[in-house]
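Example record for the data management plan.
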Amino acid sequence: RIKQKEKKMKATNFENWLNTFIEEKDFDLEMIFEVEGESGLNIMPFWIVRDAILGTTSEEQALIKNTLIQIDFRNGNIGHFFEHLAQAIAK
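Corresponding structural encoding:
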């Protein structure tokens, strides 16, 4: 329990923004991505994609944030973008 509180306190602005964005868009956190990689079919839950996003550089996070904002502005499907990122993880 203490570790969870510590982690919440250490959340970055980007992490807070991403969590809020996902929550406000009512994105399915249980979504499973099935993508092809070099080793074949990769099945990964959304949290792996989310954690990979949080592990990127601040420059990459800014690009991801901008892309999500643009998709949202155009009423696009953010799930497709997350699937695209899952594909990148699988390679």
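Summary line stored alongside the record: The chain has five helices and two strands.
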